[in-house]
Amino acid sequence: MIRKLIAAGVLIAAMTAPALADPIEGNWKTKSGETAAISKCGGAFCVKLTTGDHAGKNIGKMTGAEGKYSGTITDPKKDKTYSGSASISGATMKMKGCVLGILCRSENWAKM
Q1: DSSP H or E run through 27
Q2: How far apart are CA 109 and CA 38, in angstroms?
Q3: Nearest-5° angle of CA 107, CA 109, CA 110?
Q4: Alpha helices by DSSP H, 1-112
Q5: Which residues of 23-33 are buried (b: 16+ CB within 10 A; e: fewer)?
Q6: Fold of 21-111
Q7: What is the mean pLDDT of each run of 10 residues along the chain (112 residues)?
Q8: By the 8 A CB rule, do 35 and 48 touch?
C-alpha cells in the first residue's frame, strides 16, 4: 500500500512539474561582450541582442533541439546574414556562420 502511494505521488509530481526550457533558451555573453537573449518564437528560437550598440536588434533564428541547432545568424556590425549553426556543451555554445557553406567563422558564447 505504501509503495502504491509513493508511486502515485511520484507520478503526480512528474505530471505537475513545469516543463524544462530548451538548453538554448536564456541569456548568452557573446565573444564581443554583448548579451544575446534567445527565446522561443513560433517553432524556432530567436536571437536578440539586449546590450551594446545594437541592443534590440534580432540577429538570428534557429531550429533544433538537444544541443544542435541550425538557421541563420546576422553579424550586426556588417549587417550581413549567414547560414548558421549552434552546438551547446554545458554552459558554452559554439556559434558558427558560413558563406556558401565553406567560408565559416566560429565563436563561443557563455551562458549567463
Answers
A1: strand 26-29
A2: 12
A3: 150
A4: 2-16
A5: bbeeebbbeee
A6: Lipocalin (2.40.128)
A7: 51 50 92 96 96 96 95 93 94 93 91 96
A8: no
Q: In angstroms, how far is CA 16 from the centroid of its own chain?
A: 25
Give the C-alpha separation, 97 to 86, whole Å. 9
Q: Quote the pLDDT of residue 102.
A: 82
* Residue entry with cell 517553432: 43
Measured CA to CA, the distance from residue 69 to residue 65 in angstroms comes to 6
- SS3 state at 88: strand
CA distance 37 to 55: 10
Segments making up each domain of the chain, as ranges: 21-111
Cell 557563455 belongs to residue = 110
Kindly state the cell numbers that stand for 16. 505537475
